[in-house]
From TrEMBL:
Domain SpoVT-AbrB as annotated: residue spans: 1-46
PROSITE patterns hit by this protein: SPOVT_ABRB
Pfam families: MazE_antitoxin (PF04014)
The name this protein goes by in its record: Regulator
InterPro entries: Repressor-like_regulatory (IPR052975), SpoVT-AbrB_dom (IPR007159), SpoVT-AbrB_sf (IPR037914)
Keyword DNA-binding assigned: yes
SMART domains, alphabetized: SpoVT_AbrB
Molecular function per GO: DNA binding
Organism: Formimonas warabiya
The keyword Ribosomal protein is annotated on this UniProt entry: no
Keywords: DNA-binding
Length: 91
């Protein structure tokens, strides 16, 4: 258990071990979430990434992307489409 003291301005210093575990560095933002009468401190970047992962769950299967080669093929297809839109349409 780590303890921090609140300053007169309502500020606290997050103990180094907690910062390491949360992957926090100077300038990062944190999120406070209330759950079951407790306050949870989270790294806002990690939270955003986890939410993005949840939203994307199942999208690869819907797009029939099942292997690494499928991803490579999709990237090639998209690059070709971009090339055609940018350069072949202007000729």
């Amino acid at each position: 258990m780590d303890i921090a003291r609140i300053s007169s301005k309502g500020q606290i210093t997050i103990p180094i071990e907690i910062r390491k575990r949360l992957g926090l560095k100077e300038g990062d933002k944190v999120v406070f979430i209330e759950k079951d009468n407790n306050i949870i401190l989270l790294n806002s970047n990690r939270l955003a990434f986890e939410e993005f992962q949840k939203e994307m769950t199942g999208q690869a299967e819907k797009a029939d992307i099942n292997t690494e080669q499928d991803v490579v093929d999709l990237v090639k297809k998209v690059r070709q489409q971009i090339w055609e839109e940018r350069y072949e349409g202007n000729a």
